[in-house]
Write a structure and sequence with these properties.
Length: about 120
């Protein structure tokens, strides 16, 4: 599988499981119609209608595109890491039970892990 070229910050987050500082990501306060994709492999991850402002400082989604995201319990046994199901790139973490949306789920994602395709293309809505 070929991957997109990543800059040092993107590699730190996506390959080495880093985290960008809260409130600094380009998609944190970004609310346009479209699809969020994996920055590393271009896989579709989240639709814009699942995005909400959680106040956390990172882009938040209450659901992923089915089959797009893999969940793995962190080594600390407390948090659940989310990775791209296609390429394994680190995206962030998922939290449940916070009651921030009716779906009661928050995928907390690093902006550096994402690209965005505007519009509601076929199968996107």
């Amino acid at each position: 599988m070929e991957f997109n070229k990543l800059n040092a910050q993107e590699e730190h987050v996506m390959v080495h499981k880093g985290t960008e500082p809260p409130g600094t990501g380009r998609f944190n306060k970004f609310f346009k119609e479209g699809t969020y994709r994996c920055r590393r492999c271009n896989a579709r991850l989240f639709k814009s209608d699942a995005k909400f402002d959680s106040g956390s400082g990172w882009p938040s989604f209450d659901e992923a595109i089915p089959g797009a995201v893999k969940e793995t319990v962190d080594s600390d046994g407390i948090r659940t890491e989310i990775t791209c199901a296609k390429c394994g790139a680190h995206l962030g973490h998922v939290f449940r039970g916070e009651r921030k949306t009716p779906k009661n789920t928050r995928h907390c994602v690093n902006s550096l892990s994402l690209d965005f395709t505007p519009g509601a293309g076929e199968g996107e809505r």
